[in-house]
């Protein structure tokens, strides 16, 4: 009979997330992980596998507790409010990230995915889910006339996705409130129905 694990899996995965998130995949060794997780290297291998396997578990854990949690909290809001709350939280997290770690998923897209087909698929799948969240909000807003129909829902969703990625990358080197908020202001002008639309300079 296998012995029960003598550690809290959620807590040690959180430690793995923090290690990879702050230092990146390549700069993190299995020994670094063991130290961060409070385990022996043998225990890490036995419980999770090699470094690549730990990274996959850590990335899944991160995504579920960041994007998954955020969508769950915001999707029940009115469409424009849901999109606004999503970006407000992203910008707030970016500005308050003292270590400038950015987004672990975006970091994975830049560091790991280009060299690893499996992680390329994992990251792409999550980005498709993010785009789908934006599309659902936009379609709902266009249906109730709180979001403009001047642009196709698909195009607006992709624009929001690109803006999100831009915010997360820029925040690593320029975590400036005016810069990050300035990226999203023109997008929200596009979302506004014509009857509510104001000149862009009135938004600043």
From TrEMBL:
Gene3D superfamilies registered for this protein in UniProt: Homeodomain-like (1.10.10.60), Tetracycline Repressor, domain 2 (1.10.357.10)
Report whether Cell membrane shows up as a keyword of the record.
no
Keyword Protein transport in record: no
Q: Which residues form a coiled coil?
A: none
Top-level taxon in the UniProt lineage: Bacteria
| DNA-binding region(s) in UniProt | 29-48
Q: Where is the HTH tetR-type domain?
A: 6-66
Q: Mind listing the GO molecular function terms for this protein?
A: DNA binding
The record's annotation in InterPro entries points to: DNA-bd_HTH_TetR-type_CS, Homeodomain-like_sf, HTH_TetR, Tet_transcr_reg_TetR-rel_C_sf, TetR_C
> What are the record keywords, sorted?
DNA-binding, Transcription, Transcription regulation
Task: Enumerate the PROSITE patterns for this protein.
Answer: HTH_TETR_1, HTH_TETR_2
User: By its UniProt entry, which PANTHER family does this protein fall under?
Assistant: HTH-TYPE TRANSCRIPTIONAL REGULATOR YJDC, TRANSCRIPTIONAL REGULATORY PROTEIN
The name this protein goes by in its record? TetR family transcriptional regulator
